Amino acid sequence: MALRGLVKAGYILLLSAAIMLSGCGAEGDQTENAVVQQPSATTETSTNSQAGNAAAEKRLVTDQFGEVEIPVQPKRVTALYREDYLVALGVTPIVQYYNPMWGKQDYLGLEVPLLDVTGSIEALLASEPDLIITAGEGDAAQYENYSKIAPTYHITNEVLSDTRETLKVIAGLLGLPEKAEQVLQDYESRISQVKEELKSALGDESLVVLRMNVVDHSINIFGTQNIFIGELLYTDLELKAPAYAQAMTEGNMVLAEESLPELGADHIVLLPSNGAWEDEENAKALQEMLDSPIWKSIPAVKEGHVYPVERSYWQTGAITANFKKMDELLKLLAP
Fold first, then answer.
1. β-strands 267-272, 306-308 pairing
2. Residues in Cβ contact with 152 at an 8 Å cutoff, skipping those fewer than 6 apart
3. Across all residues in the chain, what is the average pLDDT?
């Protein structure tokens, strides 16, 4: 631990100097077989002898890469692309995930600096986190880099596939297990209510989620195993997926245009891969697609059962996003 501390300190001093010299200001798949443990146990207290004040309490937790010492009550936290869970727990992250090819999770309404995950990590360093939470997309080298800035905990895909478990793990890291239980009580209550209303409105009708890729206008279909929508729509809300989506083993895949008439969905939720449907290019592409003979042959299109939606909360399976999905499904399907 002492050697790691010296390495960390040296790294931060060197990188801070580089930031000052350059005049920069402040401004993220692992194997699914990795074992993730709930944040646990050991606490220890250290003393800053020079300042004469007690330092923050620490504890050891275990993630995919081993043991990491984190604050018992972290105050300055980032959870890259999982900020939703922080918001659900009443915690404001110090930076927000941003990718110029995709954007950010606009629905969260956060007013914090953006961390461009395709660039340098200087913005993360400048924000002075005391805990960094990473997830399935991070590799060991990236994890090591983040760990030089602050204690870093990695959540694997095994946990990420379960919305409730992800919330519990993050809440455990933040020392907020009671808050997670309250959030989950509200979540289960809302699911129960929405499930009954949708069942009454739809009966045995099926629903599928498709994504139009802005660059080439190809279509992706989200299957029942998709971590963004599968758990909520098909397990929790018990909506019926068309046979095509039920048979998929992948989370999502490109749907060949000639397969569209065979999709068999009574209702289609449609989102763009980037931007908003109001954007001129997206609006034009959507209209051209719906006007094409193949799309016009689809029963859901004929019935007016295609629903363009805002993309950012449909492309995550987190708590806050799922509340918004449920609200939108009621508005669209059970007005």
1. parallel
2. 68, 131, 132, 133, 134, 143, 146
3. 84
